[in-house]
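Forwarding the complex inputs:
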Amino acid sequence: MGRVDKATAGIDLFRNKRVASLIRFSGLFGLALSVFAVVLLVFGKNPIRAYVDIFSATLGSSYGFSEVLVKMIPLALTALAVAIPSRIWLINVGGEGQLFIGALFATWGAINFTNLPAWLFLPWISILGFLGGGLWASISGFLRAKGWASETISTLLMNYVAILLVNFFVFGPWKDPESANYPQSIPFPDAAILPSFFGSRVHLGAVLAIVGLILFHFVLSRTRWGLEMRAIGINQEAARRNGISTYRYIIILMFIGGGMAGLAGMGEVSAIHGQLRPSLSPGLGYTGFLISWMAMGNPLGIVAAAFLISVITAGGDILQMTHRIPGAAVHILMALVLFVVLARRVGKVRGK
Amino acid sequence: MIGSFLISIVSGAIHSGTPLLYATLAEAVGERAGIVNLGLEGVMLMGAVVGFTTTVQTGNPALGVLAGALAGGLFNMVFGFLVITRRANQLASGLALMFCGVGLSALVGASFIGSRIQGLNEIQIPFLSTIPFIGRAFFNYDILVYLVVPTAVLVWWVLFRTRWGLSLRAVGENPTAAFAAGKNPHRLQYQALFIAGILGGIAGAHLSLAIAKTWAEWMTAGRGFIAVALVIFSKWHPLRAIAGALLFGGAISLQLQMQARECRSRPFCSTCFLTF
Amino acid sequence: MSKQNSKAMLKTLSVLVSLALVLAVGLPEAAAQAKLKVGIIHIGSITDAGYNQAHSEGMHLMKKNLPNVEVIQVENVPEGADAERVMENMIKQGAQLIIPASFGYLDPALRVAKKYPDVKFVHPGGYKLAPNLGTYWASTPDAFYLMGIAAGKTTKTNKAGYVVALPISFFLANINAFHLGARSVNPKMETRVVFMGTFLDAPKEATAANALLDMGVDAMGVIVDSPITVVQAAEKRGAYSVGYHYIGVQKFAPKGWVSGIAFTWGELYTRFAKQVMDGTWKSEALLGNLASDYLTIAPFGPAVPADAIKLVNDSKQEFIAGKKNTFQGPIKDNKGAERVKAGEFWPLTAIGKMDWLVEGVIGQPK
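Prediction (whole assembly, three chains):
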């Protein structure tokens, strides 16, 4: 019983901290908005109109909001891919590559087993996507566990290899013969396309992301594994002496993390693109890394940060349509938000 | 035939390898000071766009290179502020810097797409450039190509043969110990990042002013990330980076050369990349 | 962070938010003043002197012809998820005619079209139709054949080179046509092709152009989004260039300019807009040719001999009259297999199936 009490007390504290960090974060966000406003002014644009347009286009209508959710799905999953291994201080910069391999595996399943019924298809390609990303990441986990290579470097380098591998298949054996030699796979059969909800593009991947986030939170706070992970995170050597197999944890956590990114790839290729293309991801893995970092690996924080980044990036085309600002300029706003959050962190450490 | 093939390969490798080498040196200087910069892509883009717009405005590509270098250096100071003064996470700050560079360069360069410039011209070294074959392969480039290997040697010399370099590497390996030994780690790291930014800016300016002679959004196309990988492969050593960048530049150019010369290239190219 | 700090920040923020809210509420609904709003999405930059600028210039002309039509342009939209959102946002802003101006926008456009049956879509180069989505394009091989004639007559080294994004059937057909045209006037002609694997990587394009020029190529063609890099590289080394897409590329190669195939979409876009306004628009697969006002042969450069210009113009009339076929058999591919039998020809409607390069072209079609 005592243990349970401790746990609930911990959650209370966590809640308070959350409120405080929410306030802090809003302030920082306001700061970023003002700096970007100055940038817009320098380039002769009206910042207030720009912000009104960004927020009314994304949050002012149910359609705009649904599109923000669509963007959030892969970002939340790739952020989990970073957050899970980060529990024991593993740094996974390979979300991008794991996403591509997940999509590759899912595509293999979709275009080679076209006769499966939908109820079987969806778990089938989900498992494949998870497996693809997971195996890809556990290579790095294995290298790290053996002490042969730092996972930071190996995951980063394996991003290139993953993208080359996908290119190899879409330019070569999987190229759709009907597509006039365009580098893309044949379209997924209808049964292999994730269903979406309420006539929007929000697809089943959202459920997977939510389940992933909840499981992550539950495992961390309520299970022995969470405790052991925390022990490894605090002191690897001590944990090992207490009989916790860090070797196993490194590989398993990398596998699960990579699997999450793989699910993101599966969702994108199945629900959004409907076929495998080289232009599958505009840096979703890297953005996921930033989101996980902003959230400090906290599940609710991941949702909040992914939401914020999605609003900003989805607002980009409005800036172009109404203000003649290059769409890429919203990257500046996104970077500014990250800058202020990054610059802030030290103050907190000092405050302690 | 084989001779001219080799000459083309060499000159192609030198051309595509030069910006990569500047970028790799930039990353190496930073990492020697203990700072990994995944935002090099953004720094290069700033160098490319500022170099290009300056050249359009002034008509002077030399001024363009200087402006690009300076822009890279100053832009990298944003990164420096985050990771040195505020001790922010390096990987996250780097990625944020990359996104910032992508956006800012797009904004700055938007009205300059399609502008014409003279660009950096080839300087033919008297006599040497007229030697058959070899002349064109080695003595017919723009100034930044001639300067790149000396720059690598200079970076090596500064890092390994000067007191400043020794202190810098000490800071990179163990900031606390260096601090205890009376060094000012922050100042050294800022200096290193400024130099890295200048080198990254030059890398970008070389792309837009000498190679492509145009500006296009995200024209670095991942070269900044390749440089990060090359630093690892060259084991953080500026002289080994020369070989790495030339080899990689050579691989890119070889793949194109083989196509121009009727060789089956695709399988070869992928294996080449995979072994990397 | 201290409490005071966060309070101050919170204040600033709430001021900002309430300001935004006031503005958002106070903003009048975008009243549809214009008779018609046309939305156009570009894959790249509209000043690229290439594919995108050709579309954008077309919009300019349309606006000049029909002053009360309003245009919403968005550049640099990646193919895929973002394209759909941009189209929906355009419709939210009142667009009744949408031009998703890239091949890869076809599937997203079909999905949006299904959702908004009242909005009309016209897609360049697509191969699927919907009740409210039509396609338009001009068949280019005949024009490339003419360019081959001009280049074949102008070249001094008898070597042409093409820098091409991807080995897509339509591009392969263009290169084949160019080569057949060149061979028809210059039997020694050879054409080399380098595929980039991407539509936009200017430094890599420069390297590819130089690789071709190193091989003695003196007539350069280019099929990527923006021809500027390749054309400038050719001009610099004294080679000739052949343009594609946008009519105004000549300024990048004043000396070595041969000619170019240009899309001049303005009048066609004007017709589309008029049809939508008076309700006569209907979904069709429009495929123009050299007789259409949207496929133009660009002005010739100073290096092209007079007899070549005459031959090009004569051949153009023969194509228009239907007396000439670009892919007239017998044609072998560059691996020696017979692709078109003697007496037959490969119809221009089937170039989507072309996955080979003709004999004499040096390159890998896959």
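Residues 141 and 283 of chain A are 22 Å apart (CA to CA).
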